[in-house]
Amino acid sequence: MLAMSFSKKEISISIEIIFSILFIIIFMPYFYENRLNSYDFNFIAIKIIQIVVFSVIYFSLSYSILELTYKKKIIQDERDDLISSKSYKLGYILLDLGIVIVLGHLISDSEFQSNGTIIFLVITLLLAVSLIKSLFQLYLYKTS
Amino acid sequence: MELKNSVKKYRQIKGLTQEELGLKSAVSRQTIISIERYRYKPSLELGLKIALALETDINELFFLDVKKEEKIKSTDIKEIENKPIKFQDFKEKDWKKLWVNLKKK
């Protein structure tokens, strides 16, 4: 059913969207709870390793399943280039705006200047931008 | 003026599927679907590739939909013609027209 309504490209974008959602569910509560604390390097290193291991397992598993289900190769054409340029443009605009907001937020209040807050805000920004970009890309694939 | 095409018509004449036409012109099936539904306007290069794959002239495959614009223009002209002219807007030809009509009566 999914294979009938979604192309291989659309499913690969959906994999990215699901990854962002899973990341929010699994890792974001930890960063949110510790947003006012200062991390020491060993503590954050363990978290980074966990994220890397999770990402590698998730992407290798999902892309292997995708490759097994869809054996045809993805043909990259001018429509794909147009859609990705449109979505990346939106992503860059949002990232620029987000950086300005995050910096303003950090400068305005000295209470938020711990490395926990910086990490939390940067990860939130990157996740939000990535999620919106992927959703917009999927929308463009479905409508254009 | 809108860019329209007869890709679907020529593809069916040639007996090709969207997938086959996509492979022949080095694009995905989704791109062919989008072109056929007028959702995506292909570049000149892709247009030529599709024309080559369908062995037709590009002018027959892709064209500007002038009819729509002509329809709008003709209705505009009709509306203008049917609108009564105000006395202060009367020009020489209108006076002449009025004079001829009065003479007829």
Question: How does the SSE layout of this entry go?
Answer:
The complex is a heterodimer of chains A (144) and B (105).
Chain A (H helix, E strand, L loop, with lengths): L1 H4 L2 H19 L1 H6 L7 H29 L8 H31 L6 H29 L1
Chain B lengths: L1 E4 L1 H8 L3 H7 L4 H8 L7 H10 L4 H4 E4 H17 L9 H13 L1
Antiparallel strand pairs in B: 1-2
Helix pairs in contact in B: 2-3
Structure, explained:
The complex is a heterodimer of chains A (144) and B (105). In chain A, 9% of the residues are buried. Chain A is flat and about 50 Å long. The longest helix of chain A is centred in the middle third of the chain and has 31 residues. By secondary structure, chain A is an all-alpha fold. Chain A contains six helices and no strands. Helices cover 82% and strands 0% of the residues of chain A. Chain A has one domain. By secondary structure, chain B is mainly alpha-helical. Chain B folds into two domains: 64 residues, Orthogonal Bundle (434 Repressor (Amino-terminal Domain)); 38 residues, no CATH class. Chain B contains seven helices and two strands. Chain B has a two-stranded antiparallel ribbon. In chain B, helix 2 crosses helix 3. Chains A and B meet through helix 5 of A and helix 3 of B.
CATH H level, superfamily name of the largest domain in chain B: lambda repressor-like DNA-binding domains
Fraction in beta strands of chain A: under 5%
What sort of overall outline of chain A do the alpha carbons produce when their principal axes are compared?
flat
Sequence of secondary-structure elements of chain A: HHHHHH
CA(first)-CA(last) distance of chain B: 45 Å
* Poorly predicted parts of chain A: none
Question: What percentage of residues of chain B falls in helices of 4 or more residues?
Answer: 55-70%
- Number of folding domains of chain A? 1
**Radius of gyration of chain B, in angstroms, nearest whole number:** 25 Å
Approximate shape of chain B: rod-shaped
Give the tally of β-strands of chain B.
2
Mean pLDDT of chain B: 84
Structural class label of chain B: mainly alpha
Question: Segments of chain B where pLDDT lies below 50 for 5+ residues?
Answer: none
- Classify the fold: give the CATH topology of the largest domain in chain B: 434 Repressor (Amino-terminal Domain)
